[in-house]
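Before the break, one more example. Copy the sequence into your notebook; we will annotate it together after we see the structure.
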Amino acid sequence: MSDTPQLLLSHHLKALKLPTFLREYDKLARQCASEGVDHSRYLLRLCELELIDRERRMVERRIKAARFPAVKSIDSFDFKAIPSLNKMLVLELARCEYVNRNENVIAVGNSGTGKTHVALALGLAACQKGLSVGFTTASALVHELIEARDEKRLLRLQKQLAKYRLLIIDELGYVPLSPTGAELLFEAFSQRYERGSTIVTSNLPFDEWTSVFGSERLTGALLDRLTHHVHILELNGESYRLRQAGKVASPPKDAEPD
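Here is what the structure looks like once it is written out:
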C-alpha cells in the first residue's frame, strides 16, 4: 500500500502529459529538502523544468516539420570568409521581426558562398521563436506542385504552403523551369504575398531570372511581389566549399632546408 501514492502520481502525471514532472519530482524533492526550500519554491522549480523541456521539444518538432536538410546556426557561419555579406542585417533578421511583418529575404551570390547556410540559420531562428517553417528547393517544389496538380490535390498543397509563417525556397536558378512549373511556382509565391514571409536563395542576379521562368512578364510580376517588402543579402566571392576542400586536399609543404 505504501507504493500507491507514487503509482497514482505517476499515472496522473502521464495523463496530464507532464513527463519532466514525472522524471524529476522525486530527485528535486530530495534536493530541495536538503537545501531547506519550501514547497512553493519546489513546485516553482518543477514548473520551470517542465516549461524549459516542453519548449525544447516544441522546437525539435518544428525543426523536424521544416524538413531542413541540415541544422545550421548563425554562430557557425564564417562571416569573415564572405565580407560582402551584411552581418548586422543577418543578425537583425535572426530576431524574426521581418516574419511578423510578412517581409521577404533574397540571398543572391555565387555557388558555395553560404546562401543555404544563412537560409537554414534563419529558419532555425524562426523555429526557436515559435514560428512554423518549411524548407524546399525550387526544383523539388515545382516537381511536388506538378505532381499534386496531376493527382487533383493541388489546392491542398497550396493551402499547406500558404500556412507556413516562413517558407524557404533554396537554389532558384539552378534548373530552368517548364512553362507549367514556372506558372505553378509563381502562384505559390503570389499566394504568400503580404500573408507570409519567404526566403529565396539564388545563384543568379535578378536580371537573369527570366532564363529560369522563361517569360519576362512572369518574371517581372514575380519580382514585383517578392521585392515589395524585401531584405537582400549579397554573398559574393570565392566558393567557401571549394576553399575548404582545397585546404583539406592540399598536402603540407616540405620544410625549407636550413
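The longest helix spans residues 39-66. The longest strand covers residues 166-172. Try to locate both features in your own notes.
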